[in-house]
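Long-time lurker, finally posting.

We've been working with Tripartite motif-containing protein 4 isoform X1 (Galeopterus variegatus) and I want a structural starting point before designing mutants. I don't trust myself to interpret raw outputs, so I'm hoping someone here can both generate the C-alpha coordinates and explain anything notable. Sequence follows.
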Amino acid sequence: MEAEDLQEDLTCSICLDYFQEPVSIECGHNFCRECLHRSWEPGGGPFSCPECRRPSTPAALRPNWALARLTEKTRRWRLGPQSPDLCGRHREPLRLFCENDQRPVCLVCRESQEHQAHDMSPIDEAFQSYREKLLKCQFILMAKMKKALHFHEVEVKNATKWKEKIKNQRMRISTEFSKLHHFLAEEEQLFLQRLSKEEEETKEKLKENMSSLNQMITSLKNLISEVEEKSQASTLELLQNPKDVLTRSENQDVNYSFEVLNVRTVCQIPMMKEILKRFQVAVNLAEDTAHPKLVISQEGRYVKNGASAGSLPVFSTAWNYFSGWRNPQKTTHVEERFQHLPCVLGKNVFTSGKHYWEVESKDNLEIAVGVCREDVMGITDSSKISPHVGIWAIYWSSAGYRPLTSLPVIPTNQESPLHRVGVYLDHGAGNVSFYSAVDGVHLHTFSCSFVSRLRPFFWLSPLAYLVLPPVPDGK
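Top reply, 14 upvotes:
Generated this for you. Predicted structure of Tripartite motif-containing protein 4 isoform X1:
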Protein backbone atom coordinates (compact mmCIF):
# COMPACT_ATOMS: atom_id res chain seq x y z
CA MET A 1 0.00 0.00 0.00
CA GLU A 2 2.92 2.32 0.78
CA ALA A 3 4.37 1.72 -2.71
CA GLU A 4 1.03 2.63 -4.29
CA ASP A 5 0.85 5.79 -2.16
CA LEU A 6 4.39 6.69 -3.25
CA GLN A 7 3.52 6.21 -6.90
CA GLU A 8 0.45 8.40 -6.43
CA ASP A 9 2.60 11.13 -4.86
CA LEU A 10 4.99 10.94 -7.82
CA THR A 11 2.24 11.09 -10.45
CA CYS A 12 1.14 14.26 -12.27
CA SER A 13 -2.59 14.82 -11.82
CA ILE A 14 -2.85 16.13 -15.40
CA CYS A 15 -1.15 13.41 -17.48
CA LEU A 16 -1.53 10.68 -14.79
CA ASP A 17 2.04 9.60 -15.38
CA TYR A 18 5.30 10.03 -13.52
CA PHE A 19 6.46 13.63 -13.28
CA GLN A 20 8.51 14.98 -16.21
CA GLU A 21 10.47 18.10 -15.10
CA PRO A 22 8.21 18.73 -12.08
CA VAL A 23 7.58 22.33 -11.04
CA SER A 24 5.83 23.82 -8.00
CA ILE A 25 3.31 26.68 -8.18
CA GLU A 26 2.19 29.20 -5.58
CA CYS A 27 -0.36 26.91 -3.94
CA GLY A 28 2.30 24.23 -3.41
CA HIS A 29 1.02 21.64 -5.89
CA ASN A 30 3.38 19.98 -8.34
CA PHE A 31 2.87 19.26 -12.04
CA CYS A 32 4.90 18.40 -15.14
CA ARG A 33 6.21 21.60 -16.68
CA GLU A 34 4.79 20.68 -20.12
CA CYS A 35 1.38 19.73 -18.67
CA LEU A 36 1.19 23.05 -16.88
CA HIS A 37 2.10 24.97 -20.03
CA ARG A 38 -0.95 23.55 -21.75
CA SER A 39 -3.13 24.96 -18.92
CA TRP A 40 -2.00 28.54 -19.44
CA GLU A 41 -4.11 31.16 -21.10
CA PRO A 42 -2.86 32.58 -24.42
CA GLY A 43 -0.30 35.27 -23.74
CA GLY A 44 1.12 33.62 -20.60
CA GLY A 45 -1.16 35.36 -18.05
CA PRO A 46 -2.38 34.05 -14.65
CA PHE A 47 -3.89 30.57 -14.51
CA SER A 48 -5.79 28.43 -11.99
CA CYS A 49 -4.28 25.43 -10.25
CA PRO A 50 -5.67 22.25 -11.88
CA GLU A 51 -6.27 20.79 -8.42
CA CYS A 52 -7.31 23.55 -5.97
CA ARG A 53 -8.21 26.27 -8.56
CA ARG A 54 -6.17 28.88 -6.70
CA PRO A 55 -4.70 31.49 -9.08
CA SER A 56 -1.02 31.45 -9.92
CA THR A 57 1.32 33.07 -12.45
CA PRO A 58 3.97 31.59 -14.77
CA ALA A 59 6.60 33.66 -13.00
CA ALA A 60 5.90 31.76 -9.75
CA LEU A 61 6.99 28.38 -11.22
CA ARG A 62 9.89 26.79 -9.37
CA PRO A 63 11.68 23.58 -10.45
CA ASN A 64 11.27 20.81 -7.82
CA TRP A 65 14.64 19.06 -8.18
CA ALA A 66 14.13 16.81 -5.14
CA LEU A 67 10.82 15.55 -6.50
CA ALA A 68 12.43 15.03 -9.93
CA ARG A 69 15.24 12.89 -8.46
CA LEU A 70 12.83 10.87 -6.34
CA THR A 71 10.53 10.30 -9.33
CA GLU A 72 13.40 9.08 -11.50
CA LYS A 73 14.69 6.68 -8.85
CA THR A 74 11.19 5.27 -8.27
CA ARG A 75 10.60 4.88 -12.00
CA ARG A 76 13.80 2.89 -12.45
CA TRP A 77 13.06 0.74 -9.37
CA ARG A 78 9.51 -0.07 -10.43
CA LEU A 79 9.99 -0.42 -14.18
CA GLY A 80 13.36 -2.19 -14.24
CA PRO A 81 15.56 -2.29 -17.41
CA GLN A 82 13.92 -0.64 -20.44
CA SER A 83 13.10 -2.83 -23.43
CA PRO A 84 13.33 -1.32 -26.95
CA ASP A 85 9.93 -2.84 -27.75
CA LEU A 86 8.20 -1.05 -24.88
CA CYS A 87 7.19 2.56 -24.36
CA GLY A 88 9.77 4.35 -22.26
CA ARG A 89 7.08 6.16 -20.24
CA HIS A 90 4.28 3.61 -19.90
CA ARG A 91 6.12 0.27 -20.33
CA GLU A 92 3.46 -0.73 -22.86
CA PRO A 93 4.14 -2.39 -26.26
CA LEU A 94 4.79 0.06 -29.11
CA ARG A 95 1.85 -0.70 -31.40
CA LEU A 96 1.25 2.68 -33.11
CA PHE A 97 3.26 5.19 -35.15
CA CYS A 98 2.73 8.92 -34.59
CA GLU A 99 2.98 10.77 -37.93
CA ASN A 100 3.28 14.14 -36.20
CA ASP A 101 6.17 13.20 -33.90
CA GLN A 102 7.61 10.61 -36.33
CA ARG A 103 8.12 7.92 -33.68
CA PRO A 104 6.46 4.74 -32.34
CA VAL A 105 4.09 5.11 -29.37
CA CYS A 106 1.96 2.84 -27.19
CA LEU A 107 -1.82 2.77 -26.74
CA VAL A 108 -1.59 4.79 -23.52
CA CYS A 109 0.37 7.50 -25.31
CA ARG A 110 -2.42 7.77 -27.87
CA GLU A 111 -4.93 8.63 -25.11
CA SER A 112 -2.68 11.27 -23.52
CA GLN A 113 -3.21 14.96 -24.16
CA GLU A 114 0.15 15.06 -25.95
CA HIS A 115 -0.99 12.75 -28.77
CA GLN A 116 -4.79 13.09 -28.80
CA ALA A 117 -4.82 15.36 -31.85
CA HIS A 118 -2.05 13.48 -33.69
CA ASP A 119 -2.43 11.14 -36.68
CA MET A 120 -1.76 7.51 -35.76
CA SER A 121 -1.31 4.33 -37.82
CA PRO A 122 -0.56 0.69 -36.91
CA ILE A 123 3.16 0.19 -36.56
CA ASP A 124 3.28 -2.64 -39.13
CA GLU A 125 1.52 -0.53 -41.75
CA ALA A 126 3.81 2.42 -41.05
CA PHE A 127 6.87 0.19 -41.35
CA GLN A 128 5.77 -1.19 -44.72
CA SER A 129 4.79 2.24 -46.05
CA TYR A 130 8.02 3.97 -45.10
CA ARG A 131 10.14 1.03 -46.24
CA GLU A 132 8.58 1.26 -49.72
CA LYS A 133 9.14 5.02 -49.74
CA LEU A 134 12.77 4.60 -48.74
CA LEU A 135 13.39 1.98 -51.43
CA LYS A 136 11.78 4.24 -54.03
CA CYS A 137 13.87 7.12 -52.76
CA GLN A 138 17.00 4.99 -53.12
CA PHE A 139 16.14 4.26 -56.76
CA ILE A 140 15.55 7.96 -57.49
CA LEU A 141 18.84 8.91 -55.85
CA MET A 142 20.69 6.38 -57.99
CA ALA A 143 19.17 7.97 -61.10
CA LYS A 144 20.26 11.39 -59.84
CA MET A 145 23.73 10.03 -59.24
CA LYS A 146 23.88 8.73 -62.83
CA LYS A 147 22.79 12.13 -64.09
CA ALA A 148 25.40 13.91 -61.97
CA LEU A 149 28.15 11.57 -63.21
CA HIS A 150 27.07 12.33 -66.78
CA PHE A 151 27.35 16.05 -66.05
CA HIS A 152 30.81 15.41 -64.63
CA GLU A 153 31.88 13.57 -67.78
CA VAL A 154 30.54 16.30 -70.07
CA GLU A 155 32.30 18.96 -68.01
CA VAL A 156 35.60 17.10 -68.35
CA LYS A 157 35.16 16.96 -72.14
CA ASN A 158 34.20 20.62 -72.15
CA ALA A 159 37.39 21.48 -70.31
CA THR A 160 39.48 19.44 -72.77
CA LYS A 161 37.96 21.27 -75.75
CA TRP A 162 38.54 24.58 -74.03
CA LYS A 163 42.20 23.75 -73.41
CA GLU A 164 42.58 23.00 -77.12
CA LYS A 165 41.01 26.38 -77.95
CA ILE A 166 43.44 28.08 -75.57
CA LYS A 167 46.35 26.23 -77.22
CA ASN A 168 45.25 27.27 -80.72
CA GLN A 169 44.69 30.86 -79.70
CA ARG A 170 48.11 31.06 -78.04
CA MET A 171 49.76 29.80 -81.26
CA ARG A 172 47.78 32.35 -83.28
CA ILE A 173 48.81 35.24 -81.06
CA SER A 174 52.48 34.20 -81.00
CA THR A 175 52.55 33.85 -84.80
CA GLU A 176 51.00 37.26 -85.44
CA PHE A 177 53.25 39.07 -83.03
CA SER A 178 56.33 37.48 -84.56
CA LYS A 179 55.68 39.55 -87.75
CA LEU A 180 56.23 42.73 -85.77
CA HIS A 181 58.54 41.28 -83.16
CA HIS A 182 61.18 44.05 -83.16
CA PHE A 183 58.89 46.94 -82.20
CA LEU A 184 55.87 45.15 -80.74
CA ALA A 185 57.52 42.75 -78.29
CA GLU A 186 55.96 44.49 -75.29
CA GLU A 187 52.49 44.37 -76.90
CA GLU A 188 52.92 40.67 -77.56
CA GLN A 189 53.62 40.01 -73.89
CA LEU A 190 50.63 42.14 -72.93
CA PHE A 191 48.26 40.08 -75.07
CA LEU A 192 49.72 36.83 -73.79
CA GLN A 193 49.26 38.07 -70.25
CA ARG A 194 45.63 38.87 -71.01
CA LEU A 195 45.12 35.41 -72.40
CA SER A 196 46.82 33.86 -69.37
CA LYS A 197 44.61 35.92 -67.09
CA GLU A 198 41.57 34.74 -69.01
CA GLU A 199 42.90 31.19 -68.77
CA GLU A 200 43.32 31.49 -65.01
CA GLU A 201 39.86 33.03 -64.61
CA THR A 202 38.31 30.28 -66.68
CA LYS A 203 40.30 27.64 -64.80
CA GLU A 204 38.95 29.08 -61.57
CA LYS A 205 35.43 28.91 -62.95
CA LEU A 206 36.03 25.34 -64.09
CA LYS A 207 37.40 24.55 -60.65
CA GLU A 208 34.27 26.01 -59.09
CA ASN A 209 32.08 24.03 -61.48
CA MET A 210 33.93 20.80 -60.74
CA SER A 211 33.82 21.55 -57.01
CA SER A 212 30.08 22.10 -57.24
CA LEU A 213 29.62 18.83 -59.10
CA ASN A 214 31.87 16.96 -56.66
CA GLN A 215 29.90 18.36 -53.74
CA MET A 216 26.69 17.29 -55.45
CA ILE A 217 28.06 13.81 -56.02
CA THR A 218 29.36 13.55 -52.44
CA SER A 219 25.99 14.67 -51.10
CA LEU A 220 24.23 12.11 -53.26
CA LYS A 221 26.62 9.38 -52.11
CA ASN A 222 25.97 10.26 -48.49
CA LEU A 223 22.22 10.33 -49.03
CA ILE A 224 22.29 7.02 -50.85
CA SER A 225 24.28 5.44 -48.01
CA GLU A 226 21.96 6.94 -45.44
CA VAL A 227 18.84 5.82 -47.28
CA GLU A 228 20.29 2.36 -47.83
CA GLU A 229 21.21 2.07 -44.16
CA LYS A 230 17.78 3.38 -43.13
CA SER A 231 15.92 1.03 -45.45
CA GLN A 232 17.77 -1.98 -44.05
CA ALA A 233 17.28 -0.98 -40.41
CA SER A 234 14.99 -2.66 -37.91
CA THR A 235 11.41 -1.59 -37.58
CA LEU A 236 11.92 0.83 -34.73
CA GLU A 237 15.17 2.27 -36.08
CA LEU A 238 13.65 2.76 -39.53
CA LEU A 239 10.65 4.56 -38.05
CA GLN A 240 12.77 7.02 -36.08
CA ASN A 241 11.91 10.12 -38.15
CA PRO A 242 12.13 8.47 -41.63
CA LYS A 243 10.54 11.51 -43.26
CA ASP A 244 13.64 13.59 -42.63
CA VAL A 245 15.87 11.58 -44.99
CA LEU A 246 13.07 11.38 -47.53
CA THR A 247 12.62 15.13 -47.51
CA ARG A 248 16.35 15.77 -47.88
CA SER A 249 16.50 13.26 -50.73
CA GLU A 250 13.61 14.93 -52.56
CA ASN A 251 15.20 18.34 -52.09
CA GLN A 252 18.61 17.21 -53.38
CA ASP A 253 19.18 19.32 -56.48
CA VAL A 254 21.07 17.88 -59.48
CA ASN A 255 20.32 20.66 -61.94
CA TYR A 256 23.37 21.92 -63.79
CA SER A 257 23.81 24.32 -66.68
CA PHE A 258 26.71 24.01 -69.07
CA GLU A 259 28.56 26.95 -70.48
CA VAL A 260 30.39 26.83 -73.80
CA LEU A 261 33.90 28.03 -73.10
CA ASN A 262 35.17 30.46 -75.71
CA VAL A 263 38.36 32.47 -75.83
CA ARG A 264 37.56 36.15 -75.34
CA THR A 265 41.08 37.46 -75.92
CA VAL A 266 41.40 38.46 -79.59
CA CYS A 267 44.55 38.88 -81.62
CA GLN A 268 44.38 42.61 -82.31
CA ILE A 269 47.81 44.06 -83.06
CA PRO A 270 48.15 47.85 -82.84
CA MET A 271 48.88 49.50 -86.21
CA MET A 272 48.06 46.23 -88.01
CA LYS A 273 45.61 47.94 -90.36
CA GLU A 274 48.18 50.59 -91.24
CA ILE A 275 50.89 48.01 -91.83
CA LEU A 276 48.65 45.92 -94.10
CA LYS A 277 47.70 49.01 -96.11
CA ARG A 278 51.36 49.29 -97.15
CA PHE A 279 50.91 46.11 -99.20
CA GLN A 280 47.43 46.89 -100.58
CA VAL A 281 46.97 46.14 -104.29
CA ALA A 282 44.10 46.69 -106.68
CA VAL A 283 42.31 43.45 -107.47
CA ASN A 284 40.03 43.13 -110.50
CA LEU A 285 37.70 40.27 -111.33
CA ALA A 286 38.50 38.15 -114.37
CA GLU A 287 35.27 37.86 -116.40
CA ASP A 288 36.66 34.97 -118.42
CA THR A 289 36.78 32.76 -115.28
CA ALA A 290 33.31 33.56 -113.88
CA HIS A 291 30.43 31.11 -113.66
CA PRO A 292 27.61 31.96 -116.15
CA LYS A 293 25.21 33.01 -113.37
CA LEU A 294 27.61 35.62 -112.04
CA VAL A 295 27.18 39.21 -113.25
CA ILE A 296 30.28 41.40 -113.11
CA SER A 297 30.65 45.16 -113.41
CA GLN A 298 32.57 46.49 -116.42
CA GLU A 299 35.58 47.57 -114.38
CA GLY A 300 35.63 44.24 -112.53
CA ARG A 301 35.08 45.45 -108.94
CA TYR A 302 31.55 44.20 -108.32
CA VAL A 303 29.97 40.76 -108.75
CA LYS A 304 26.54 39.37 -107.91
CA ASN A 305 25.02 35.91 -108.17
CA GLY A 306 21.88 35.45 -110.26
CA ALA A 307 20.64 39.04 -110.11
CA SER A 308 19.68 41.07 -113.19
CA ALA A 309 20.91 44.58 -113.79
CA GLY A 310 17.45 45.99 -113.00
CA SER A 311 17.33 44.45 -109.52
CA LEU A 312 20.53 45.98 -108.20
CA PRO A 313 20.39 47.50 -104.71
CA VAL A 314 20.61 51.24 -104.31
CA PHE A 315 24.19 52.23 -103.53
CA SER A 316 25.60 55.36 -101.97
CA THR A 317 27.47 57.87 -104.11
CA ALA A 318 30.75 56.21 -103.15
CA TRP A 319 29.79 53.14 -105.16
CA ASN A 320 28.52 54.91 -108.28
CA TYR A 321 31.56 53.88 -110.30
CA PHE A 322 29.83 51.02 -112.18
CA SER A 323 29.54 52.07 -115.79
CA GLY A 324 28.13 48.88 -117.21
CA TRP A 325 27.81 45.12 -116.92
CA ARG A 326 29.24 42.20 -118.77
CA ASN A 327 27.80 38.74 -118.97
CA PRO A 328 30.86 36.46 -118.87
CA GLN A 329 29.01 34.03 -121.12
CA LYS A 330 29.48 36.39 -124.04
CA THR A 331 33.22 36.97 -123.69
CA THR A 332 34.77 33.68 -122.64
CA HIS A 333 35.49 30.18 -123.81
CA VAL A 334 33.56 27.55 -121.86
CA GLU A 335 36.62 25.57 -120.87
CA GLU A 336 38.31 28.61 -119.31
CA ARG A 337 35.77 29.40 -116.60
CA PHE A 338 33.89 27.79 -113.70
CA GLN A 339 31.07 25.59 -114.98
CA HIS A 340 29.70 24.01 -111.79
CA LEU A 341 30.26 26.46 -108.92
CA PRO A 342 29.41 30.20 -108.64
CA CYS A 343 33.06 31.26 -108.45
CA VAL A 344 35.31 33.81 -110.10
CA LEU A 345 39.04 34.55 -109.95
CA GLY A 346 40.93 37.81 -109.83
CA LYS A 347 42.99 38.94 -112.77
CA ASN A 348 46.05 39.28 -110.55
CA VAL A 349 48.65 36.53 -110.56
CA PHE A 350 51.01 36.53 -107.58
CA THR A 351 54.39 34.81 -107.84
CA SER A 352 56.30 36.61 -105.05
CA GLY A 353 56.12 39.42 -102.51
CA LYS A 354 53.47 40.60 -100.05
CA HIS A 355 49.98 41.60 -101.19
CA TYR A 356 46.86 42.80 -99.41
CA TRP A 357 43.32 43.46 -100.67
CA GLU A 358 39.89 43.91 -99.10
CA VAL A 359 36.47 42.46 -99.89
CA GLU A 360 33.17 43.95 -98.78
CA SER A 361 29.68 42.42 -98.48
CA LYS A 362 26.70 44.36 -97.12
CA ASP A 363 23.89 41.85 -97.53
CA ASN A 364 25.27 39.35 -94.95
CA LEU A 365 24.71 36.45 -97.36
CA GLU A 366 27.27 33.68 -97.61
CA ILE A 367 30.47 34.33 -99.55
CA ALA A 368 33.99 32.91 -99.54
CA VAL A 369 37.23 34.73 -100.35
CA GLY A 370 40.89 33.77 -100.45
CA VAL A 371 43.55 32.63 -102.95
CA CYS A 372 43.90 29.59 -105.18
CA ARG A 373 45.97 27.87 -107.82
CA GLU A 374 45.17 28.76 -111.43
CA ASP A 375 43.86 25.30 -112.33
CA VAL A 376 40.85 25.02 -109.96
CA MET A 377 38.08 25.86 -112.46
CA GLY A 378 37.16 22.19 -112.86
CA ILE A 379 36.02 21.74 -109.24
CA THR A 380 32.39 20.50 -109.10
CA ASP A 381 31.51 20.34 -105.38
CA SER A 382 31.49 23.37 -103.07
CA SER A 383 31.99 21.09 -100.06
CA LYS A 384 35.43 20.19 -101.44
CA ILE A 385 36.70 23.79 -101.40
CA SER A 386 39.79 23.41 -99.24
CA PRO A 387 43.59 23.59 -99.36
CA HIS A 388 43.53 19.97 -100.54
CA VAL A 389 42.32 21.10 -103.99
CA GLY A 390 44.43 24.26 -104.02
CA ILE A 391 42.00 26.80 -102.50
CA TRP A 392 42.85 28.67 -99.29
CA ALA A 393 39.74 30.62 -98.30
CA ILE A 394 37.39 31.52 -95.47
CA TYR A 395 33.61 31.45 -95.57
CA TRP A 396 31.72 34.22 -93.88
CA SER A 397 28.16 35.45 -93.30
CA SER A 398 26.17 37.30 -90.66
CA ALA A 399 26.41 34.21 -88.41
CA GLY A 400 30.22 34.30 -88.28
CA TYR A 401 33.15 32.90 -90.20
CA ARG A 402 35.08 29.66 -90.58
CA PRO A 403 38.09 28.49 -92.59
CA LEU A 404 37.24 26.20 -95.49
CA THR A 405 39.15 23.00 -94.82
CA SER A 406 38.61 19.29 -95.31
CA LEU A 407 38.02 19.01 -91.54
CA PRO A 408 34.79 20.13 -89.82
CA VAL A 409 35.18 23.53 -88.19
CA ILE A 410 32.70 25.28 -85.91
CA PRO A 411 31.94 28.84 -87.16
CA THR A 412 33.35 31.60 -84.98
CA ASN A 413 30.64 34.03 -83.89
CA GLN A 414 31.42 37.74 -84.09
CA GLU A 415 30.19 40.37 -81.64
CA SER A 416 29.17 42.34 -84.74
CA PRO A 417 28.69 40.92 -88.27
CA LEU A 418 31.69 40.96 -90.61
CA HIS A 419 31.13 43.35 -93.49
CA ARG A 420 34.69 43.79 -94.71
CA VAL A 421 37.52 41.25 -94.74
CA GLY A 422 41.17 41.80 -95.61
CA VAL A 423 43.28 39.14 -97.36
CA TYR A 424 47.04 39.26 -96.83
CA LEU A 425 49.29 37.04 -98.94
CA ASP A 426 52.92 36.67 -97.92
CA HIS A 427 54.21 34.64 -100.85
CA GLY A 428 57.77 34.43 -99.52
CA ALA A 429 56.60 33.06 -96.14
CA GLY A 430 54.13 30.74 -97.87
CA ASN A 431 50.99 31.79 -95.98
CA VAL A 432 47.75 33.71 -96.47
CA SER A 433 46.09 35.47 -93.54
CA PHE A 434 42.63 36.95 -93.08
CA TYR A 435 41.73 39.98 -90.99
CA SER A 436 38.71 42.04 -90.06
CA ALA A 437 39.34 45.14 -92.14
CA VAL A 438 37.45 47.27 -89.60
CA ASP A 439 39.62 46.73 -86.52
CA GLY A 440 42.54 44.59 -87.74
CA VAL A 441 41.60 41.51 -85.68
CA HIS A 442 43.26 38.39 -87.00
CA LEU A 443 40.82 35.71 -88.17
CA HIS A 444 42.82 32.83 -89.64
CA THR A 445 46.07 31.89 -91.40
CA PHE A 446 46.68 29.15 -93.99
CA SER A 447 49.99 27.76 -95.21
CA CYS A 448 50.19 27.74 -99.01
CA SER A 449 53.86 26.86 -99.46
CA PHE A 450 55.32 25.40 -102.65
CA VAL A 451 52.72 27.09 -104.93
CA SER A 452 54.41 29.41 -107.39
CA ARG A 453 51.36 31.09 -109.00
CA LEU A 454 48.36 32.21 -106.91
CA ARG A 455 45.23 34.22 -107.79
CA PRO A 456 42.43 35.83 -105.75
CA PHE A 457 39.42 33.52 -105.33
CA PHE A 458 35.73 34.35 -104.75
CA TRP A 459 32.60 32.21 -104.22
CA LEU A 460 29.05 33.61 -103.84
CA SER A 461 25.84 32.02 -102.60
CA PRO A 462 22.57 32.71 -104.48
CA LEU A 463 21.64 36.44 -104.52
CA ALA A 464 24.87 37.37 -102.73
CA TYR A 465 27.05 40.21 -103.99
CA LEU A 466 30.48 41.52 -103.10
CA VAL A 467 32.55 44.60 -103.81
CA LEU A 468 36.29 45.11 -104.15
CA PRO A 469 36.71 48.63 -102.70
CA PRO A 470 38.97 50.97 -104.66
CA VAL A 471 42.54 51.33 -103.54
CA PRO A 472 43.56 54.79 -102.31
CA ASP A 473 45.63 56.89 -104.67
CA GLY A 474 49.34 56.15 -104.66
CA LYS A 475 48.91 52.36 -104.43
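Before you design anything, note these points.
The chain is about 35% helix and 20% strand.
The longest helix spans residues 123-178.
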